[in-house]
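Summary for the lay section of the report: proteins are chains of building blocks that fold into shapes. Here we show the chain for Transcriptional regulator, MarR family and then a coded description of the shape we predicted for it.
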Amino acid sequence: MEDPREICGPIAHIYRSHMAYMAKELEAYGIGSGQFDFLMVLYRKDGISQETLAKILKVSKATSTRAIQSLEKEGYVYRQKDENDLRAYRVYLTEKGKEIRGVVLEKLISFVDTLLSDFTSEEKEIFRLLVRKASLKLCEPGFGPECQDGRTKCNKNEKEA
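The coded shape description reads as follows.
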């Protein structure tokens, strides 16, 4: 590939469009840009530490703290001291946070449906496989301690559930 912008530019555009879309769609629920990512991680594994959330999402501890505080203020999550490490907090979904899951997923599905609306079924599957393959590459040493789903190691042969 001669010009990396041919790949990175569209990926960045998709990411920014995704963030803007989700922020707009979830604004009425008091969920701001980037905060829904924290909910998505908690939907997979509730009760993880703030530090782990920051690592999974590849954001600073300060960014993680602000997002969690906003979600806490809106009543979607609560923090509790970690019994094993009194300096750390674990983040849990509240009932309200669990109830909003369907809305968040509906908005996410709507975005993906729009993104892939001109793709054939075969193209959608190829795209899904290629995006997954590319993202798994970033789980290798040097790109961060954890994968998006919280594992410290990626299984490249694993099928997405």
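Put simply, here is one thing we learned. The first strand starts at residue 48 and ends at 49.
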